[in-house]
């Protein structure tokens, strides 16, 4: 898997990034003359140079508004994960409804970059939550799950395991941790209210223990 | 009837049933392409649908998570904005009820934003119908309160600054610009809005927090509510020769506009103020310095003699490597190398002691700190800061003549006079002019100091040089050696008597205390001289060798009187309330020397 890091300010990168960028083999740094080449192409909406990359990490301030819009449209149209980092971004925001899209402060971005790339190397997938929250990335999924179950169980709309909408990234962890036999069954196996409540209690405990 | 509002991003049990009608809901949906979450929230609170709904509400329910990504805690962030928002008027104190499964303990452990949970008028309930019903019951019993004390609120919360120092640096700059423009007397709303339009960080939560802290401090001070306005203008004089140039990569944040259109408006109109508008993103320090050093040389050549400089001008300056110099200091060294008389003011957000020390080492004592939000300055403090800035600029403008004096001194030192001379006296005279630390250097250093004692010393040195120069051209037989080596006799002797061949009037000066000891309108011509004085020699040489006009000779006679009765010895014959040694006296002598030596 290849990931493009578009950074016009390599000096600043060295300030935030303590490791050696060339050790992250999955990463291709686009800066200097290479950056100048893509800069003008981006203004014309030409993104062929990014075709071979499965994820784009770009310094937002390197581009003007039009370029940012065009790049976002390009990534959105082919569901290519996109990260914009900038010192001007005050709070990170992740959205994966249309495609995986993260906006994050530069310092936070570089703090978690190694972790993110190592995960890419190990799993072959893109997990932008790792960039956003570092080692605590699973917690946000657990919280989302708890909220969903709380909502669904009050509406009595959980009938089968699939209704729990457990994110695949944490499902195995829950199966291992909760030791609930029924959780290992096929998605459309029925679940009753006692099982849901038991699941909910265990989830609460896991969340509490995660901090 | 309770007017309530639920802010959510779908998925809340409170949305079921009849708890909240459509008009009582706000769906928090910044969309996938928002530029910044704080900007989205601010836009909604200042002019969006959310603002209208809050203005109608007696209580605001907010889901702790307003995105699928729970740890973002956008609900908490939104609540801070509501509390700190000026545009909501009294409604920013409305009771806020957080809705979610998270406990106080959990939130306290997982986010810095949890402080708000422990402030007045904030509640936390589970996302269940029962919890909601219980809360509404409490409300009906009037057991739910709004925020009572804004001061207490500000003291209980803490909003972390941006993780990135450069953004923090920008906030400092923009804070200063906002303060100064807000307090400016001579600024129309249109002008102010134009400057504020360039500012981006006011919408951030951190900026609002600092603003809140500043307001609280003002409320504690008795003089605070006095909305002091100040003329944001540096007084301009068409007589002086000051030309001011401003170098700051933050000029695009609004400083460039503020300086050129207001603070230095009259200078700009007269073509005597300009600023560097070109700071390409990502420019390497080495390129920036090369470009700006060339620019500076050109500017000084074109008469710019006052520079206002920021210290950090590029990325590298935010992570200074050991042994390297901040870009601002590099430029200051270049300015000093070209012309030591050019006046420099450092205007920076950096308050590191080492930078103040370094500035002093480079001979720059005008160091103005841009107003920093962390200082929590009141309007009176801001007023004082501008006054300080203004005083430094006025001082720099007053001393801007030093740039031209430096050039004059340099040209005097480059004289070829007596360069092949073997006469020891003349050689020594030359050495005292061209040598390092010689009399011209001393004169420059003394003139730089503004105290009158330094001026007197500079004056004496300049006069001494001029007098000495003239003695070389006055020959013993009573003549003057002209430029083409001819001799013009200016005295004649008749037996024991000496007679002057030209008219030298020595007048009465209105600053003299003792008029009796002075000769009024004495004509030397055809007058017997008691002796050939140095004044006589000096005037004779200046008139016949250097063709000095009568007005300047009269001025020189006046200076000779001051030299003898005030600068060298205070005889009491000069009424110092009327006349003292002035800068123009020193410059007059220096310019005479320059004319003769260069």
What's the layout of helices and strands?
The complex is a heterodimer of chains A (211) and B (598).
Chain A (H helix, E strand, L loop, with lengths): L2 E4 L3 H7 L10 E4 L1 H12 L11 E5 L5 H13 L4 E5 L6 E3 L5 E5 H18 L4 H6 L3 H18 L13 H11 L14 H17 L2
Chain B lengths: L3 E5 L16 E3 L9 H11 L1 H7 L3 E5 L10 H11 L11 E4 L4 H7 L11 E4 L3 H12 L9 H7 L8 H18 L6 H8 L8 H16 L23 E4 L7 H9 L1 H5 L3 E3 L9 H17 L4 E4 L17 H12 L4 E6 L4 H9 L5 E3 L9 H20 L2 H13 L10 H11 L4 H10 L3 H22 E2 L3 E3 L5 E3 L1 E4 L2 E4 L27 E2 L4 H11 L5 H18 L15 H15 L1
What fold name stands as the CATH topology of the largest domain in chain B?
Rossmann fold
Which spans of chain B of ≥5 residues are poorly predicted at pLDDT below 50? Answer: 517-524
End-to-end CA span of chain B: 93 Å
Placed side by side, the strands forming the largest sheet of chain A appear as 2-1-3-4-6-5
Beta fraction of the residues of chain A?
Answer: 5-15%
Largest interface: A-B, 47 and 47 residues
Uncertain segments of chain A of ≥5 residues (pLDDT<50)? none
Number of helices of chain B: 22
Q: Helicity of chain A, in percent?
A: 40-55%
- CATH class placement of the largest domain in chain B: Alpha Beta
Compute the CA-based radius of gyration of chain A.
20 Å
């Amino acid at each position: 898997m290849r990931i493009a890091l578009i950074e016009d300010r390599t000096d600043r990168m060295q300030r935030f990034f303590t490791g050696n960028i060339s050790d992250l083999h999955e990463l291709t740094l686009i800066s200097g003359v290479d950056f100048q080449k893509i800069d003008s192409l981006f203004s014309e909406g030409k993104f062929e140079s990014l075709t071979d990359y499965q994820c784009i990490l770009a310094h937002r301030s390197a581009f003007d508004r039009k370029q940012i819009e065009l790049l976002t449209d390009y990534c959105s149209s082919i569901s290519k994960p996109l990260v914009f980092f900038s010192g001007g971004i005050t709070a990170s925001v992740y959205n994966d409804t249309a495609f995986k899209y993260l906006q994050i402060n530069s310092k936070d971005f570089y703090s978690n970059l190694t972790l993110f790339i190592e995960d890419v190397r190990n799993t072959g997938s893109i997990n932008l939550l790792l960039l956003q929250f570092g080692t605590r990335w699973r917690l946000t999924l657990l919280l989302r799950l708890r909220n969903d179950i709380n909502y669904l169980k009050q509406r009595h709309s959980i009938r089968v395991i699939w209704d729990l909408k457990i994110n695949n990234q944490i499902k195995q962890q829950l199966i291992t941790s909760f030791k609930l036999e029924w959780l290992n069954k096929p998605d459309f196996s029925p679940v009753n209210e006692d099982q849901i409540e038991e699941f909910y209690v265990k989830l609460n405990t896991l969340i509490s223990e995660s901090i | 009837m309770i007017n309530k509002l639920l802010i959510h991003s779908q998925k809340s049990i409170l949305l079921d049933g009849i708890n909240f009608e459509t008009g009582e809901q706000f769906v928090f949906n910044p969309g996938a392409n928002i530029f910044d979450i704080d900007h989205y929230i601010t836009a909604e609170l200042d002019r969006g649908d959310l603002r209208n709904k809050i203005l109608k509400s007696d209580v605001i329910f907010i889901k702790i998570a307003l995105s699928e990504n729970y740890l973002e805690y956008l609900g908490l962030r939104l609540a801070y904005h509501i509390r700190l928002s000026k545009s909501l008027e009294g409604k920013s104190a409305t009771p806020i009820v957080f809705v979610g499964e998270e406990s106080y303990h959990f939130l306290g452990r997982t986010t810095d934003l949890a402080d708000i949970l422990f402030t007045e008028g904030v509640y936390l309930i589970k996302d269940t119908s029962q919890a909601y019903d219980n809360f509404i019951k409490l409300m009906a019993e009037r057991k739910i309160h709004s925020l009572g004390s804004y001061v207490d609120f500000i003291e209980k919360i803490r909003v972390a600054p941006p993780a990135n120092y450069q953004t923090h640096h920008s906030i400092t700059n923009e804070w200063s610009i906002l303060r100064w423009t807000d307090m400016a007397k001579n600024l129309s709303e249109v002008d102010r809005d134009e400057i504020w339009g360039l500012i981006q960080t006011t919408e951030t939560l951190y900026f609002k927090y600092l603003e809140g802290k500043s307001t609280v401090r003002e409320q504690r001070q008795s003089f605070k509510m006095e909305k002091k306005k100040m003329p944001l203008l540096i007084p301009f004089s068409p007589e002086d020769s000051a030309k001011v140039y401003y170098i700051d990569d933050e000029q695009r944040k609004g400083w460039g506009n503020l300086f050129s259109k207001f603070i230095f408006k009259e200078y700009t109109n007269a073509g005597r103020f300009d600023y560097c508008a070109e700071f390409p993103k990502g420019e390497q320090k080495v390129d920036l310095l090369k470009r700006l050093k060339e620019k500076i040389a050109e500017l000084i050549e074109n008469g710019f003699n006052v520079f206002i400089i920021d210290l950090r001008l590029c990325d590298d300056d935010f992570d200074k490597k050991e042994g390297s110099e901040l870009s601002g200091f590099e430029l200051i060294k270049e300015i000093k190398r070209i012309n030591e008389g050019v006046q420099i003011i450092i205007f920076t957000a950096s308050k590191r002691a080492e930078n103040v020390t370094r500035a002093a080492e480079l001979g720059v004592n005008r160091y103005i700190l841009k107003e920093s939000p962390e200082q929590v300055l009141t309007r009176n403090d801001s007023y004082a800061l501008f006054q300080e800035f203004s005083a430094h600029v006025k001082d720099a403008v007053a001393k801007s003549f030093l740039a031209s004096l430096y050039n004059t001194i340099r040209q005097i030192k480059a004289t070829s006079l007596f360069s092949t001379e073997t006469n020891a006296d003349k050689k020594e005279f030359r050495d005292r002019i061209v040598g390092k630390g010689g009399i011209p250097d001393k004169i420059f250093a003394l003139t730089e100091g503004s105290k009158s004692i330094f001026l007197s010393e500079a004056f004496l040195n300049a006069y001494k040089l001029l007098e000495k120069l003239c003695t070389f051209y006055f020959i013993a037989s009573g003549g003057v050696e002209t430029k083409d080596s001819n001799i013009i006799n200016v005295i004649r002797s008749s037996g024991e008597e000496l007679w002057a061949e030209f008219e030298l009037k020595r007048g009465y000066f209105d600053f003299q205390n003792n008029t009796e000891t002075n000769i009024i309108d004495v004509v030397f011509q055809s007058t017997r001289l008691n002796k050939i004085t140095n004044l006589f020699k000096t005037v004779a040489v200046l008139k016949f060798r250097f063709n000095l006009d009568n007005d300047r000779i009269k001025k020189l006679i006046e200076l000779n009187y001051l030299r003898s009765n005030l600068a060298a010895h205070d005889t009491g014959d000069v009424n110092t309330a009327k006349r003292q040694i002035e800068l123009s006296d020193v410059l007059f002598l220096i310019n005479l020397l320059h004319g003769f030596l260069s």
